[in-house]
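[Help] Beginner question about ligand-bound structures

Sorry if this is basic. My supervisor gave me a protein sequence and a SMILES string for zinc ion and asked me to "get the holo structure". I don't really know what that means in practice or what format the answer should be in. Inputs are pasted below exactly as I got them.
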Amino acid sequence: MALKNLWRLSLFRGALWIAVIWAVGGAVSGAQAAVRSVIVLVADGVGVAHTTVARWVSPSRSLPVDSMKVFLVRTYGAESLVTDSAPAATAFATGHKTSDKFVGVLPGPVTLPGIPPVPPERQQKPVATVLEGAKFLGKATGIVATSNVQHATPAAYSAHWPDRNQYNEIAEQQVYQDLDVVFGGGRKYLRPVSQGGARTDGEDLIQVLKDRGYTIVETREEMLRTQASKVWGLFAEDAMERDLDRAVFAPWEPSLAEMTAKAIEVLSRHPNGFFLFVEGSQVDWASHGNDPVGVVTELLAFHNAVQMALDYARGREDTAVLVFSDHGNGGMSLGNAMTDGTYSRMAYASVVAPLKKATLTAEGIAKQIGDNRTESRIREVLRRFWGLEDVTAEEVARIQGYQGPHLSNAIAPIMSVRSNIGWTTHGHTGEDIILYTYGLDMPMGTMENTDIAHACARAMGFRLEDVDAKLFRPAQEVAAHLGGRISIDKSDPENPVLVIQKEAGGAVRFPFSKDLMITDGKTSRLIGPTIYAPHTGTVYLTLEKEP
Ligand SMILES: [Zn+2]
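Answer (accepted):
No worries, everyone starts somewhere. Holo just means with the ligand present. The predicted complex, written as structure tokens, is below.
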């Protein structure tokens, strides 16, 4: 044996021993008893400065997370030091770093050092999420977001597809996931084009939800009133309104905190505990727009939701709460190039007061101005909703001359200048983010975003690899198990079906993206949907039935 191989063998043995010692040590030292329920709350696109500024602006000058344990988390993806939401969420939902725009699947080619490459035949393979693991254990599950619920972060917990923008595909998988509570926007991705929706496959997924016993709610009042144990809230065709702008533009919508409290109320009635994912989706969008009003108000609305989770978890011994972001955004800073060295200018009043006066986000201001970009209209709106009397002729001219798709981009700098907030980019940034925990037994330190997934799974008492092996078996392997051969029925090209033709006669059919198994015309429900991996053409499925 070559010296190199000997070294490899001893390294392998060493790793094995470390694993054994770790496992035994964990058992001996009495690792945390499994928690019943886990609540994960993610504020999308939040760096440290976002949180600092929000804390200053909050009425109590404190945030619910201030009393939680704190960790630092590395956010990079499989090929990039700056991540998109989709691979970031896949990392903390499944425990795997993945490629740009992928949700809930393994990466394509890996280019960053330190991340194990994936062999070609396994690239883009679906991988089990923490939510699916909880469901597998018989727990109730829920998703809450202020974007459309098919958006990257909620999608990474509940769907598997190498393109986050395929909302129709993601929506279908989510509907067939047997979730207990879903609150957010995105109604149009559940309805066929013929009914004014976005679905090109002709499927009416709202009818499917009704047939499956869901109560559909479309307003805050309907949501608060329902006593249903399976409830799907569709509050907007696409994204919900920003928190600060809701009263003006969409007063029927619930707040993120109200959705979170209701989701906990519904899920906590379940005897086996629950997993709930909550996203403050639009802090990210306000950061892309470099809008400090949007960032602060969306983030404070998120922290109101965190308070709901902590109110539930405190005083119980059985619920863990994790709060974190997926990546930084905007390079937001408290202090900007204009205030270099003049710290006396950075008084409380120079940062907080302008932000506190605002009653609409930059996006809301843009909507109020609309196409009527006269100087008097611009001045009137900025006076009424931002309390500004000192708008310059140059600022007015910049709004009037703006040609791009987001008028708010010409409006937001007016507030950034007055509140001494700096920005370096309209895109994401690659620094570490903060993880806050309650009720979770973890060693102190820094970690990878993938570690968050394993910590959640470990807390509930399962291993993601074990769930993965049960949920996503290659069709070839399942066909061998059933004694048959596979083909794909594309007679309806928008709704393909995996067919396993048994040698003993008869066929078993598995429609793509659904949790259905059809044998001799008899339909039974599986514990998760059948997933097609377009890159390799492999179909992955489970034979485990819904209990
Ligand atoms: Zn994001």
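A couple of things worth pointing out: The pocket of zinc ion is lined by residues 44-45, 85, 284, 326-327 (CB under 6 Å). The CA atoms of residues 53 and 334 lie 7 Å apart. Feel free to follow up in the thread.
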